[in-house]
Specification:
This is 3-oxoacyl-ACP reductase. This protein is an alpha/beta fold and 247 residues long. 44% of the residues lie in helices and 15% in strands. It has a single domain, classed as Rossmann fold (3-Layer(aba) Sandwich). It contains 8 helices and 7 strands, in the order E-H-E-H-E-H-E-H-E-H-H-E-H-H-E. Strand 4, helix 4 and strand 5 form a beta-alpha-beta unit. The structure holds nicotinamide-adenine-dinucleotide (NAD). Nicotinamide-adenine-dinucleotide binds next to helix 1, strand 2 and helix 4.
């Protein structure tokens, strides 16, 4: 699968799934613009993605800020001329009993997971409408959001990632006749900096297959959706069977 000259904007591209997706995208001949909160982390990530710097650009800042979203889109257009794909990957996860969430946690998770999707998607789709084509991939969550697990209470993930899944379908229908596809990948629990190594045994058991996923599992799903012109409005579960039922 080649992404020759295709331009992807990937939010949260300084680590984990977003960085792996960016590395893979550039390996396949594409160009990426990544975003994350910390300039130094982004600079390091950009070197790993493309040491020549030719196929990667980055914009530091909080993706829930409409001005940062605007800069990211402007950077993609200035550096690479157009935008083919937006991967809404930036996100946070806090597990705790419902009544223990603080107002700050509520506001922060809503801001990153929802506003962080909203502003940049609006701007990206505005550009995609001009070219009559484009693809948006939202990274939602499987188990904790769709098939709640007693041992991992996470209502803010359910609220925000569940909302993203609904928005995926809504936008897919709204833009299907405009050449713009909108899909989601719903991961199970994936080995990224989000989870300390000491938690991996416990987290692995929260999947029917008995183990956690790897970042490449999610990257493969993004790549599949990118190369599937008849697929839109899909929530592709990459979750070791979590969404299939009880086990
Ligand atoms: P990660 O912590 O390695 O990456 C998260 C990225 O988001 C980082 O690059 C971080 O800088 C960025 N980010 C966070 N807040 C931001 C903000 N306000 N502005 C800009 N960037 C911000 O974690 P990951 O596991 O790679 O997570 C990627 C996505 O996958 C997230 O949306 C997460 O909810 C989702 N997800 C992860 C798992 C998992 O188990 N790892 C499971 C389901 C869904």
């Amino acid at each position: 699968m080649t992404f020759q000259h295709k331009v992807a904007v990937i939010t949260g591209g300084s680590s984990g799934i977003g960085k792996a997706a960016a590395i893979d995208w550039v390996k396949r001949g594409g160009n990426v613009v990544i975003n994350g909160r910390r300039e130094e982390a982004l600079e390091e990530a950009a070197k790993d993605i493309d040491p020549s710097g030719e196929h990667v650009a980055y914009v530091a800042g909080d993706i829930s800020n409409p001005k940062i979203a605007e800069s990211l889109i402007q950077e993609a257009l200035a550096r690479f001329g157009h935008i083919d794909t937006l991967v809404n990957n930036a996100g946070v996860f806090i597990s705790k009993p419902f009544t223990d969430y603080t107002i700050e946690e509520f506001e922060s998770v809503l801001s990153i997971n929802v506003a962080g999707f909203f502003h940049i998607t609006q701007l990206a789709i505005t550009e995609m409408l001009k070219s009559g084509s484009g693809h948006v991939v939202n990274i939602t969550a499987s188990g904790v959001a769709e098939q709640p697990i007693k041992a991992v209470p996470a209502v803010l993930a359910a609220l925000t990632k569940g909302g993203l899944a609904a928005a995926t379908k809504s936008l897919a229908i709204e833009y299907a006749d405009k050449g713009i596809r909108v899909n989601a990948v719903a991961p199970g629990i994936i080995k990224t900096p989000m989870h300390g190594v000491e938690t991996h045994d416990f987290l692995g058991k929260l999947h029917p297959v008995g183990r956690m996923g790897e970042v490449q599992d999610v990257v493969n799903a993004i790549n599949y959706l990118e190369s599937a012109p008849f697929v839109t409005g899909d929530i592709l579960h990459v979750d070791g069977g979590q969404s299939a039922g009880q086990w």
